[in-house]
Amino acid sequence: MEDNQEHSVSLSAYYIGETEVTQELWLAVMGNNPSYFDGSQNSEPAKGEAQGKRPVENVTWFDCIVFCNELTKKVSELEENQCVYTFGGHAYTKEDAQNQEVPEMDMSKKGFRLPTETEWEWAAKGGKEYRWAGTDEQDELKKYAWYAWYDDSDGGDANNKTHEVKQKQANGYGLYDMSGNVWEWCWDRFKDFLPDSLVEAGVVDIDDIPDSCRVFRGGGIDIDIYNAALPIRLFYTPDFHAGSLGLRLACRL
Q1: How many CB atoms lie under 10 A from the CB of residue 208?
Q2: What is the rounded CA–CA span in Å between residue 59 and residue 12?
Q3: Cα(228)–Cα(240) distance, rounded to whole angstroms?
Q4: ∠ CA(149), CA(235), CA(219), 5° rounding?
Q5: pTM above the 0.85 mark?
């Protein structure tokens, strides 16, 4: 885990999902629901919440890459020739994901994709230099994020389960759950942005981090107020999956 430092970035215009990808959308595209919180015993939705509108989770980075391509293929205005991810000269497939092949990305294509880490962070800020998506006040965070409760000062009300999207308030760009609910995979390797100052200071031992590790951002139902903060970066190998880790879509304008 790393709390990233202030830095300058350059971005092209892009779209990003209003919400995290839901279980009903994943099921419609992929024909399965890999989620841990699938509505079965001990994983029922909170009272009044729709099961299908909970975020999909328990997906690997490879799974997310395939999902982006498969969704692109299903949109008549896009289809396969606009798939962002390829491997060996063809659109990245389920078989490629099963073999844990690392795709190439062509951001000139109009299909769906994972946001870059920079795109994710810019969107999460919502036009403000807030510590969390939507607020800079700890006492206000419960209005914007599902996160864990650890003591009376935290105020988290996730109750150890994911929740239907759009139940909390949006950030300044109208985006929901950018803090809390589920962590969100990004395209980038963790090492793609690793300030030399952290390495030199011994805060991060770069030799202990596999090159393959990808970043996820935003916090989830399993974390406290500190780890829900926007600067926090988590990473793991792309075959990792967990019941608090999902995705949000992006695409070019």
Answers
A1: 6
A2: 28
A3: 20
A4: 25
A5: yes
